[in-house]
C-alpha cells in the first residue's frame, strides 16, 4: 500500500538507498524520452513523450531534497558542496544545452537544482535569521530566471524540509509546488511523481549508485542530440 503524502509520519523514516537510485533511473528515462520526442521527432506538448517527461524534474527534485536532508541529519557534508558541484555542471552543460535547445534563456536545469540546493544550505546554515530571510528572497527572485521558476526551486527545499522536520506544512508546500509545476507545464502528469516518491518507503531495491553518471549524462545526451540534428557541427 502506497502511503499518502498527507501522512507525514512516514517521512520520519528513510527509504532504502537502492530505491532512491532506482527513482533516479526513472527520472533519467523520462527526461531522455522527453528530449528525444521534442528535439529529434519534433513532438509537441500533446505527445506521450512530453507527458512522460513531466515526471523527470519532480523526481530529480525529490531525490536531491531527500539526499540533502540525509547529509544535514548525518552531518556528513555541507549542502554548499552540492551547490558548487551543481553550479559547475550547469556551466559545463551551457554549450551543449544551447546547441540542442537553441536558446540561452531559460538556462539548463542544473541552475534550478543548484538554487534549490542553496535554499537547503541556507536552512541548515548558522546565518542569522534576517540573513536567511534575505537569502531566501534572493533565491526567490533568481528562481524566475530558471526552469520551473520558484515552484521548481522550492519543491527541492520542501522535500528537504519534509525529511528534516516532518510535518503537514512541508508536505503541503511540496504538494503545492508540484501542482504549480503541473499548471506551468499544462500537464497533470507531473503529479504522478508524488505516488512514485511516496512508494519509495514501501519498496526495497538494490540498485547501485553511479556517482558521476547522472551528472555527465545531461550534457552528453544534449550534445549527442545536437550532433544528430545538426551533423554539420562536426565539420
Descriptive account of the structure:
This protein has 235 residues and is mainly α. The chain has one domain (14-222). It is built from eleven helices and no strands. The longest helix has 24 residues, at 17-40.
Please report the total strand number as a whole number.
Answer: 0
Give the strand content. Answer: under 5%
Task: Provide the low-confidence segments as ranges.
Answer: 1-6
Query: Mean pLDDT, nearest integer?
Result: 93
Shape: globular
- The portion of residues assigned to helices is 55-70%
Count of discrete structural domains: 1
* H-E string: HHHHHHHHHHH
Number of helices: 11
Topology readout:
Elements: H1 17-40, H2 48-53, H3 56-74, H4 79-92, H5 94-101, H6 109-124, H7 129-143, H8 149-164, H9 168-184, H10 193-199, H11 213-229
How would you concisely characterize the structure shown here?
The protein has 235 residues and is an all-alpha fold. Helix content is 68%, strand content 0%.
Summarize this structure as a short list of keywords or feature phrases.
single chain; 235 residues; 68% helix
